[in-house]
Write a structure and sequence with these properties.
The complex is a heterodimer. Chain A is mainly α. Chain A has 3 domains: 145 residues, Farnesyl Diphosphate Synthase (Orthogonal Bundle); 215 residues, Farnesyl Diphosphate Synthase, CATH 1.10.600.10; 73 residues, no CATH class. Chain A is built from 24 helices and no strands. The longest helix of chain A has 41 residues. Chain A is elongated, with a radius of gyration of 34 Å. The mean pLDDT of chain A is 89. Chain B is an alpha/beta fold. Chain B is built from 11 helices and 15 strands. The termini of chain B are far apart. The model of chain B has no long low-confidence stretch (mean pLDDT 92). The chains are: A mainly alpha, B alpha/beta. At the A-B interface, helix 19, helix 20 and helix 21 of A face strand 6, strand 13, helix 7 and helix 11 of B. Chain A: InterPro entries: Isoprenoid_synthase_dom_sf (IPR008949), Squ/phyt_synthse (IPR002060), Squal_synth-like (IPR006449), Squalene/phytoene_synthase_CS (IPR019845), Trans_IPPS_euk-type (IPR044844), Trans_IPPS_HH (IPR033904). Chain A: Pathway: Terpene metabolism; lanosterol biosynthesis; lanosterol from farnesyl diphosphate: step 1/3. Chain A: This is Squalene synthase. Chain A: Its EC number is 2.5.1.21.
């Protein structure tokens, strides 16, 4: 956006500008990384982190010092793996061993890779990958083992997909395959991060016993991105929507982009949204298991962005023609709100669930299921933070307190004390002002003693000119007595 | 209960020709191994074909002398008591007579006839004042609304009857429990779906009372019937135990909320019904009438129609219901009875609407002849 356009935009959307300014001014990171104490290679790693990730780099850099470096390296390694997988110019016979072996490669001091096409956007990272490897060999062995394990699983998953002719020609067929894909690219990340958090004692170890929760965290983010990026992926000749879903609405995937099929296309994307909404409960449950604030922010911010993104793409015809994103102002206020506690995050989810329900339309065959999915989210949040208390209701029923009485009593009490404080305030103000006026008059030389004695004589109104001869007389008389 | 059919022995369904009752009879026949008998005031409607072997008995449940011989003949192991006048349009004396006195008679006869288990059909409305109060994710810890705050006499009598049924648990050998269904709908329903369909047939679907952020539980009748079967089975199992079960597992003497576990926004349910009937209209042209305005309108309509001697098209009660949050948490039924709905909300609505459309078509044919 040009500056003029931005100015125009913000002049009619002051709230957006306000949110951005607030985030910039008041956002107080829980932890701040200190580049001065870092080695040259580590600084280089953070340089690549900023280059390769727009959304994650800032939240990673605010992580607890214990996890700052492991998580940053974890991100860079997976980004490296992804860059190899993405590059269609690398032949399969070269690509497959790289993917399957990547977990060993990341231990080979000095390894770099120049194979990527010059157009690959994160090519630089792999060209200088030795800095990541150097740093990885310095972190605690427990963290390194987790990173290696996830890298191995993901590399093998990617190699399997690259080898799958059926998948490469016809694309993802079933919802099961779709979720399997999301598992390899995102669910595994959730698993790895959770193990890191627990290892660092910053999350509840019970999370490891419920691996489906971490899985959902990854799935929800990935699915949301897939739904949003339908147009961009289509232009890059990629398709992640499973045939099981889109074939219910159109015969060929391309038809989704034909404006005359708009309603069908919307129905198709709503069904994808419905599928994603199914992960929300587990995401909220997962976040309840995080103990440390910076880790909480790290997991909660992307989730808040995802539910907001899901809402903006829902029933939105624009997703078939362009890239739809939440506004920067909304992103800032979401970051503010989600980097607090589970309750504020639940408020965000409830708000967006209701917005989705509001955009939901009976034109859509999944109308009722979507309504129920939103209801389910609300119900789950209600189970975490109940708004009704059965014990209080029982007391009200027993007549020990009647709801109306209780309220009235409280209001009366409040009203009484309100009046009291109001009086005190008024009197106090009067007193202060009087004191000031009297004090000022005194300093200016007013003769209160004379005024008082004149008043005692019953002379309430001075019948003479101020400062006149008669006044002088009175002062004289007062001071020297009526001799 | 899916794979192997459960043995329930002799089962007597009181009110087995009613809306819920006949669905219970259907499910008993298809899902269990049991000898089914039915008591109802009239046994001509909703009757199974003779080949199914269901024994039908005409009797008034407020008359012990009529019930006892039937019980002695049938020798039921399980009694499922669903008989009740419909929630609207009946006079208070009848509610009291059937719900409270009828239930008292049923309990007494069960005890005399050595029945093992009694499942009583209560109502989820008994914890609401049915006027201004929201129920947000309510569960069995929520107190029953005392009579003085209850605005629906029907609900008051259901609460009293539930109390009678539960108090009888383990007094002698009888085990009892209570099922509290919320917003039952289904084939043969005369309260929910016909009203919604009527709005669709008369093209009044473009009005909405309230902002539609209120979640509401509606429950497909087969799921409610299924919960009764699960409860009966659980009580029967308990009756074979030599020691009473632990507090957190017990079913006898307990009440259970039963819903479809899919609360939806009130007007979304209505639109779901209309969609099932073929109306795929969007919501762009819908007029939203706020709750307060609606209450005012309802009041005016009530007076005006009362003056003209007609039934108003909009009442304050309708406004209150459609703006009320009312949904429940069925975790207790899930844990102790193993209850999970067998029919999803959308499918339940479709089945119901198809049934009503078919009935309408038949009606049309009759008139055409």
């Amino acid at each position: 956006m040009g500056i003029i356009k931005q100015l125009l935009y913000f002049s009619v959307h002051p709230n957006q500008l306000r949110a951005i300014i607030q985030w910039k001014l008041w956002h107080d990171p829980v932890h701040t990384r200190n580049p001065e104490k870092e080695s040259a290679t580590l600084r280089q790693c953070f340089h690549y982190l900023q280059l390769t990730s727009r959304s994650f780099s800032s939240v990673i850099q605010e992580l607890h010092p214990e996890l700052l470096v492991p998580v940053a390296l974890f991100y860079l390694i997976l980004r490296g793996l992804d860059t190899i997988e993405d590059d269609m110019t690398i032949p399969l016979e070269k690509k497959e061993p790289l993917l399957r072996n990547f977990h060993n490669i990341i231990e080979q001091e000095g390894w770099t890779c120049n194979e990527n096409a010059p157009t690959e956007k994160d090519r630089d990272l792999l060209v200088h990958f030795d800095c990541v490897i150097t740093e990885l060999n310095l972190i605690k062995p427990a963290y390194k083992a987790i990173i290696k394990d996830i890298t191995e699983q993901m590399g093998n998953g990617m190699a399997d997909s690259a080898n799958n002719q059926e998948l490469n020609i016809n694309g993802i067929a079933t919802i099961k395959e779709y979720e399997k894909y999301c598992h390899y690219v995102a669910g595994l990340v959730g698993d790895g991060l959770t193990r890191l958090f627990v290892e660092a004692k910053l999350a509840n170890p019970a999370l490891l016993k419920r691996p489906e929760l971490a899985e959902s965290m990854g799935q929800f983010l990935q699915k949301t991105n897939i739904i949003r990026d339908i147009r961009e992926d289509f232009e890059d000749k990629r398709r992640w929507y499973p045939k099981e879903i889109w074939s219910k609405h159109v015969d060929n995937f391309d038809e989704l982009f034909d404006p005359k099929n708009l309603q069908k296309a919307l129905n198709c994307s709503s069904e994808m949204v419905l599928n994603s909404l199914g992960n929300v409960e587990e995401c909220l449950f997962y976040m309840a298991g995080i103990k440390e604030q910076s880790v909480f922010n790290f997991v909660a911010i992307p989730q808040a962005m995802a539910i907001a993104t899901l809402e903006i793409v829902f029933q939105n015809p624009a997703i078939f023609t362009k890239n739809v994103k939440i506004t920067k102002g909304d992103a800032c206020s979401l970051m503010m709100e989600s980097s607090q506690n589970l309750r504020t995050v639940c408020d965000i989810f409830k708000r967006y669930a209701r917005r989705i329900a509001k955009k939901n339309t009976p034109k859509d065959p999944n109308f009722l299921q979507i309504s129920a999915a939103c209801g389910k989210i609300e119900q789950f949040i209600e189970s975490l933070y109940p708004s009704q208390d059965p014990k209080a209701l029982a007391l009200i029923h027993k007549g020990e307190i009647s709801a109306a009485d209780e309220k009235k009593k409280a209001e009366d009490k409040e009203a009484k004390s309100d009046v009291f404080f109001l009086l005190i305030a008024v009197l106090g103000t009067l007193l202060v002002i009087s004191a000031l006026m009297i004090g000022a008059a005194y300093l200016a030389g007013a003769r209160f003693d004379i005024a008082l004695s004149e008043l005692q004589k019953g002379k309430f109104f001075p019948g003479h000119q101020p400062g006149g001869a008669e006044s002088q007389n009175i002062v004289q008389n007062h001071d020297h007595g009526e001799l | 209960m899916a794979a192997k059919k459960q043995q329930l022995g002799n089962v007597l369904v009181i009110g087995g020709c009613g809306f819920l009752g006949h669905h219970i009879v259907d499910l008993l026949l298809s899902r269990t191994i049991s000898k089914v008998s039915v008591i109802d005031l009239f046994t001509t409607r909703n009757r199974r074909p003779d080949s199914d072997g269901v024994g039908y008995f005409n009797a008034d449940i407020t008359d012990i002398s009529a019930l006892l011989p039937i019980f002695q003949k049938v020798k039921p192991d399980i009694v499922i008591h669903t008989a009740s006048p419909t929630a609207v349009g009946t006079n208070n004396a009848l509610y009291y007579k059937v719900n409270v006195e009828g239930t008292r008679c049923v309990v007494e006869v069960c005890e005399k006839a050595n029945v093992k288990a009694l499942v009583y059909t209560s109502s989820a409305s008994i914890i609401s004042d049915n006027n201004a109060m929201d129920l947000i994710n309510a569960d069995e810890r929520w107190p029953v609304m005392p009579a003085k705050s209850q605005t629906e006499y029907y609900s008051q009598t259901k609460a009293e009857a539930e109390q009678l049924a539960l108090a009888a648990n383990r007094k002698n050998k009888l085990l009892t429990c209570s099922i509290r269904p919320a917003g039952i709908f289904g084939e043969g329903d005369i309260q929910n779906i016909p009203n919604f369909l009527n709005v669709h047939y008369t093209n009044r679907t473009n009005f909405q009372l309230g902002d539609n952020t209120n979640l509401f539980d509606f429950t497909y009748v087969q799921n409610v019937a299924y919960a009764h079967l699960l409860a009966a089975y659980a009580l029967l199992q308990t009756s074979t135990l030599s020691t009473p079960p632990l507090d957190h597992e017990k079913v006898d003497g307990e009440a259970f909320f039963i819903t479809n576990c899919e609360p939806v926004y009130f007007w979304d349910f209505a639109r779901g019904v209309w969609q099932a009937a073929g109306r795929y209209d969007g919501t762009e042209k819908v007029w939203v009438i706020g709750r307060d305005v609606g209450l005012g309108l309802g009041g005016v309509m009530e007076w005006a129609y009362w003056f003209m001697g007609k039934t108003p098209k909009l009442t304050r009660k309708q406004v209150k219901y459609s703006c009320m949050t009312r949904y429940y948490d069925c975790t207790k039924a899930h844990r102790r009875l193993g209850y999970t709905p067998i029919v999803k909300l959308r499918d339940g609505i479709q089945k119901t609407v198809d049934w009503f459309e078919e009935e309408k078509r038949k009606e049309g044919e009759k008139k055409g002849q």
